[in-house]
Amino acid sequence: MFIPHTDDERKVMLETIGKTSLEELFNVVPQKYRYPNLDLPVGLSEMEVLEQIQDLADANDACDNLVCFLGAGAYDHYTPAVVDSLLRRGEFFTAYTPYQPEISQGTLQAIFEYQSLIAHLTGMEVCNASHYDGATAAAEACITAYHHFQGKRKTFLLSPAVHPDYRATIRTYLCGFEGKLIQGDEPNQDPLSTPESLIPSIDGNTALVLVQYPDFFGRIFDLSNLVKKAHEAGSLIAVAVNPIALGLIKAPGEIGVDIVVGDGQPLGIPLSFGGPTLGLFATRKELIRKVSGRIVGETMDAQGRRGYVLTLTAREQHIRREKSTSNICTNQGLMALAATIYLSLLGKQGLRKISELCYQKAHYAAQNIGKLRGFSIKTDIPFFNEFIVKCPKSISLMNNFLIDHGFLGGYDLATISPTLENHMLVAVTEKISKEMIDLFCEKLVEVANE
Amino acid sequence: MKIPADFRYTETDEWLKVDGKIITIGITDYAQNHLSDLVYCGLRAEKGAIVAKGDLIVEIDSVKASAEVNSPVSGKVLDINQSIASTPEVINTDPYGNGWFYKIEITNPADLEKLMSAEDYEKYCETRGN
Amino acid sequence: MSEPTIFELSSPGRVGFQLPEFDVPKVDFPQNLLRGNLDLPELSEIDVVRHFTRLSSLNYSIDKGFYPLGSCTMKYNPRINEVTARLPGFSFSHPLQPIKTVQGNLFLMFQLQEWLKEITGFAAVSLQPAAGAQGEFVGCLIIRAYHQDRKDYKRKIILVPDSAHGTNPASTTMAGFDVVNIPSDKRGNVDIAALKLVCNENVAGLMLTNPNTLGLFDENILEIINIIHKAGGLVYGDGANLNALLGIVRPADLGIDVMHFNLHKTFSTPHGGGGPGSGPVGVSKELADFLPEPLVGIIEKGDDEIPPLYGFFKPFKSIGRIKSFHGQFGILVRAFTYISMLGKDGLRQVSEYAVLNANYLMHKLKEKYTLPYDRTCMHEFVLEGIWNDIPDIHALDIAKRLMDYDFHPPTNYFPLIVKEALMIEPTETESKQTLDRFAEAMLKIADEAHTNPQLLHEAPHHTPVSRLDEVKAARDLVICCWPVKDN
Predict the structure, then answer these.
(1) Cβ(C269)–Cβ(C334) below 8 Å
(2) From the candidate CATH numbers 3.90.550.10, 3.40.640.10, 3.20.20.70, 2.60.120.1690, the one assigned to the domain spanning C80-340
(3) Of A397, C235, C238, C300, which has the most beta carbons under 10 Å away?
(4) Which chains border C (3 or more CB–CB pairs < 8 Å)?
(5) Looking at the domain covering A67-79+348-449, what would its CATH class be?
C-alpha cells in the first residue's frame, strides 16, 4: 500500500544484488517455519477502512455526546483548536527523537520550553522531558529516591489517597528491588486518611513519602508539616499533582517538596480512552543526575548561536546500559508539545482563570447536590474540582440511568473500598455550564426517586 | 600517554601515589582520554569517613560515558579534593596532579600488593588497544 | 537568527485563549492554600501559532526526507492514521466509562490483540506497555514471575548479547536480574560456544534480538533457543526488528517465549519527536497468566442476534499494573488502521521490500565502505564509518556531512561491537530513486573524506545550527528558562 516499487524496479534491484527472487532473501529462515499462512483479512482501501473504523467509533457513547462528571485521573477539559492544528504538522509528528540536534532544533527547543513551563508551574528547579504517564512518573520517583540513598533506605510510604493505578504501578516497578517495603496504603488503612497520618510511619529507613495534591478524592491539604517531618527523618517527599489545579493552589516547590510527578492529560491532551498521556517529573537541581528520562539543555554552536541538545545523556540506557537507573528510551514527545502549546496559549492569566472556573463550578455543583434529599457531601476539607457524594442508591445503577439522560456520572468509589459503597467521586471542569449542573441535579433527584 | 613511574595502578585505571600509609588516588591519563571531556565529578565519601575496599567513592560523567571509581583500598579518608566537583575538566588536563580525588590512610597494607607498577600498567594498556 | 523562547516573546497581559465567563456564584478560596506567583509567559494566539510554526521548520522529519536509521524503522506515517485516531467517538472516550458505552474501543483493542497474535504466533498479547522499553521491562518481569511461580529462586541471571540495544541490560537490571554479556561470532551470530559455557540452572533467560542489531538473522536461531530451553530458561525476543519478519516467519514458531513489538516502528505509528510509542507484549501459552492487567476479552458471549460484550480482565497470575488505564489507545487505533489497510498480503510485502531495500543499499555502499559482515542482511545492515588510511575521520563526521546532502544520518556508534558503526535501515516505503540518491551521497562523502576531510570535520554547513557544544551543555546545565523579572 505504501510501497512505491514497480515490478521493473524490483527486477533491477534484485539483479543488482545477484538474486532472482524476493524469496531468496529469506533462505536463512528455517524452512519449516518460513512463510506461515496468516489468518488475517485482506487489505482494504483507505475509504473502506475509514468506514469500518468509523463504525467502531460510532459504537461508543463518548463525551462529545455526554456531559462528563467523571474524573478520577482523566479530565474532560476543552482543547483549543490551535493545539491540534500545530500537532498535525508533519515536521513535529513525523520527526524522530532529537539525537541529531542540528536538524532537530524545533523539537529540542519545544521540549526546553516544556521543561521550563512545568518547572515554573510546579515551583521546582528542574524538569525532564516527560515520562509515559503520572503512574510511571511516580514509580520513577521511587526509583530516583532509591538510588539517591544508594539502596540504603528501602521503605516507600504511600498515602492511600494516591490514585490506585499509581500505587499499583509502583508495586510492579519495584518488585525486583530486594528488601524494599511499600507501606501506608494497606487495605486496612482508611482510604480517606489525611497526609498527616503518614507521619508516625516515617523513620530512618524511609526513602520516599508520596502523597497526591489535590488527592485522588479532590481534597487539598496543607502539606508543610508533612514535608517538615519527612525531611527531619532524612527522607525525600514527592507529590503527584493535577497541573490545572496548580493555577490556583500553592506550588509544591513553595512547600519544599523534593519531587513533583503527575499526569499532564488536562493540559490540552484529549481523553482518548486514557492514552497516550503525559508523565510530569520535576525535582530539585541536586537530584538531577539520579533522574531518568531525557533532558534538554541550552548551549551554543561553533558560530556562537544559541541551540539546544539532549544532555546528561550519560545517565541514560544507551550509555550506562545495565548501570542506568531506568531503561526509559522514549518520552511522550508529541504530548509534551501539546502541553507546551496549551500552556503558551493560556499563559499566566488563562491558567489562573481556568483553574478558578473548575473550582467555582465544582463548588456550585457540590452545594446544590448537597441540598438534594438523600445526597450528602463531605465538605469539611477544602477541595479543588472533585468531591465525594454519598448517594441513596448504588453508583452503577445511578450511572446507568444518567447515561440514558446524556450524563456521564462520577466514579464509583466502591471500587476503591467497601467502606465507600454508594459513594460517587464527581468532577467538574470549565466545560460544564451552570445549566448543565442544574439539570444534572434534577436527574439525580429523578433516579433517587425511581 | 602519560604513566608516572613512581605511581601504582589498578586494572580499573586508577593511580595511587603511596606515601607510607597514606595514598592519594585519581584516574589515569588513559582513563580520562577514553572518557573524553568530563562534565561531572561527584565524590561520594566525606572527609573522615571509613571506606572499605570496593566501596563506590567517585562518580564521573563525560558527555558520552559514565564511570565509577570503587576504592582499591580500605581505610580512612583524610582529605578530599574540594574543588574537583566544580571543575571536573581538571581531570582531563591534569589527571595526576590537580585531578586527584582523595587522600586515604590505609588500614590493610596487603591491599597495595595487588597494584601494578607503571611498567605493568603500560603493558596492560597496550594489550587493550583502543 | 535563533527563534526566541516563549518566555522571551512574552508580553504582560496577553492571553492566547479566551475562556467563558463565570456563570456560577463564587465562593472564597482558603488563603493559606492559595498560590503566590505564577510565572508563565503571556502570548496571543498568533504569537503561539507563529512561534511553533517557525520551530517546526527547523526540524527534519519523515515528511521532509529519508531517515536511514537502523533499528528505528522510520517508515512513512500514513495520514489516514491521524484521521481515525481523532474520530470523536475515540478521542472523547473517558478510560473509566462503563464498558457498555465503549464497545467500539474494546472491540478494536481485542481485534488488535488477535491480529498481533496471528502475525507473531503468540498465544496471548497485552496492549498495555507504553513503549518498547516498557514492553521489555514487562517481559523481564514475566520471566521473573514464571520462575518464582515454579519456586525456582536461584535463577538470577539474564544473558544479553553484546550487540543488544542499551534498553535490554537496563530492563533486566530494573527487574532485579544480573546481566551476563554474550559475545557474537565472526559471522555476526550469537557465539554458541560462549553461550553453552554460561548456560546453567542460574540462568533465567536470554534476551535475543533477531534479526540482531547487525541486521542479521541468526543462522543458529533454533539451536540457541533450544540450549536455553534445555537449561530451563526462557527466551525473550526484542521485537524492534520485526519489520523484517512480517509474513516471513512467526517468532513464537521459532520458540521465543515472550516478545515486545514497537508499534511506532513496525506498525507505522508516528515517532512524534520522541514519543508517544507503544510496546505490546506477546507471550506463549505457558506465560499467558502472567501478563500485566488489564487485558481485553469477551466478558459475555454473544449469539446470532447479540454481539459479544467486550471488557477487561486480570490474568490469573498477573505481574500487576504497569501504568494507569489501558495503554496508549490513540496509538493502538493507528496500528489497527495500518494493519486493516495492509491485510495479510500487504504485511508480507512490507518485509519483503524492507529486506530488498536494505540489501540493495548494502550492495551499493560496500563499494567504498567496510562491511564487517558480508552476507545477506535482513532489513538493516551495519558499515564501519572509518577507513584505515584516514583514521582521523570518524562515523560522527560522516553523519554530520550527510546533513549537508539533506539526509538524516544513520544510527551511529551502535551496535557497540562494530568500530565507528553506521547502522542503516531504509524501510520499505523508500523508493529506488531515494536509495540511489542516498548511496550517491554516501559514496561522494567517502571520496570527500579522502580528498577534503575538513568538509566532514566542520560539517554540517547548511543546517539551522552547526555542531553544538555538548560539553558546555552538560557542564553549565541550563535546562530551564527563567522569566524576565518585571521591574
Answers:
(1) yes
(2) 3.40.640.10
(3) C238
(4) A, B
(5) alpha beta
Instruction: Give tens-digit pLDDT for B34-50.
Output: 888 999 999 999 999 99
How many Å lie between the alpha carbon of C345 and the closest alpha carbon of chain A?
A: 7
- Show the cell assigned to A31: 524452512
**Cis bond upstream, residue A214 (ω within 30):** yes
Helix axes A434-449, A395-404, angle to 10 degrees: 120
Q: Parallel, antiparallel, or unpaired: how do β-strands C411-412 and C421-424 relate?
A: antiparallel
**Which CA distances in Å does B7 have to B100, B113, C63?**
13, 13, 58
pLDDT band at C43 (very low <50, low <70, confident <90, very high): very high
Nearest to A322 among C173, C320, C329 (CB): C173
Mean pLDDT across chain C: 94
Determine whether the interchain pair B63/A150 forms a contact, defined as Cβ–Cβ distance below 8 Å.
Answer: no
Interface contact flag, C360 A16, Cβ < 8 Å: yes
Q: Domain locations in chain C?
A: 6-56, 80-340
The grid coordinates listed for A315 are 545517565
**Cβ contacts of C413 within 8 Å, gap of 6 or more:** C395, C396, C420, C421
Percentage of chain C modeled with pLDDT above 90:
87
The alpha-helical segments, DSSP class H, found in C41-184 are: 45-56, 79-85, 88-91, 103-120, 132-149, 167-174
Chain B positions with Cβ closer than 8 Å to C: 37, 39-40, 61, 63, 88-89
Asked if A289's CB is within 8 angstroms of B61's CB, the reply is yes
Task: Output the nine-digit C-alpha cell for A34.
Answer: 518460513
Can you give the pLDDT of all 450 residues of chain A as single tens digits?
Answer: 799 999 999 999 999 999 999 999 999 999 999 999 999 999 999 999 999 999 999 999 999 999 999 999 999 999 999 999 999 999 999 999 999 999 999 999 999 999 999 999 999 999 999 999 999 999 999 999 999 998 999 999 999 999 999 999 999 999 989 899 999 999 889 999 999 999 999 999 999 999 999 999 999 999 999 999 999 999 999 999 999 999 999 999 999 999 999 999 999 999 999 989 999 999 999 898 889 888 999 999 999 999 999 998 877 656 566 666 666 666 799 999 999 999 999 999 999 999 999 999 999 999 999 999 999 997 778 999 999 999 999 999 999 999 999 999 999 999 999 999 999 999 999 999 999 999 999 999 999 998
Residue A8, chain C, CB below 8 Å: the answer is no
Which ipTM value was assigned to this complex? 0.96
Instruction: Determine the Cα angle at A408 with ends A397 and C311, to 5°.
Output: 70
CB C248 within 8 A of CB C178: no
Which residues of B fall within a CB distance of 8 Å from A319? 64-66
Fold for A82-342, please state it. Aspartate Aminotransferase; domain 2 (3.40.640)
Residues carrying CATH 3.40.640.10, chain A: 82-342
C290 touches chain A (CB under 8 A): no
- As a whole number of angstroms, the distance between CA C362 and CA C381 comes to 7
Chain C residue closest in CA terms to B38:
C471
Instruction: Estimate the crossing angle of helix A333-371 against helix A105-122, to 10 degrees.
Output: 30
A318 touches chain C (CB under 8 A): yes
Within 8 A of A313 by CB-CB distance, chain B residues are: 63-64
Q: Is pTM, for the whole model, over 0.90?
A: yes
Residues with Cβ within 8 Å of A435's Cβ and at least 6 positions away in sequence, in order, are: none
Alpha-carbon distances of C24 from A67, A71, A356, C20, rounded to whole Å: 17, 20, 11, 12
Pick A403's closest partner by Cβ from C19, C98, C329.
C98
Beta-carbon separation of A289 and B62 below 8 A: no
Q: Which CATH number describes the domain made up of B8-113?
A: 2.40.50.100
Check residue C486 and give its pLDDT.
42
